Automatic annotation (TrEMBL):
Protein name: Lipoprotein
Organism: Streptomyces cyanogenus
Domain of life of the source: Bacteria
Amino acid sequence: MAVAGLVAAGAGAVVACQPGGLGSATVAYTTDRTATAALEHRHVNVDWLSCTGHQGDDGTHGTSPAPSESTVVSVDCQGQTDDGRKIVVTGLVTKAVDGACVRGDLTAKVGGRQVFRVAGLGNCSAKPGPTYRAPTGGQPEPDVTVTVTVTRTVWPVQGK
């Protein structure tokens, strides 16, 4: 869980650097959240789901588009249900509101059976939420290793 939190927090940092553009990190994070909610709404008990986004086919993966560009991000999610069935969510996203919605063409399959094919997930009228919410609803606890360096000066001892 700590790793997922760090990945989500990292996605938020990437999103902040892409004003006006549709970033692959935003799409991956938001598709993960909204697809999980949509699957659970359809009574699919999601154990885990992990999404990746890829921008365009022009070799500019990871770069920010100019604000005037029309961007399409392909998204690929892999996961598993509580009872061990494979979850696959794929599609093309043309709009994302961080953590709230994605629009485009998305298909979800569970155990090889199509569960939904939609033009969008979530509520695009909603205010964007924080990029990471602690699972318990409380504040996230930092999971950081702190190294302290102590410098000691040893003065020469008389007679040595």
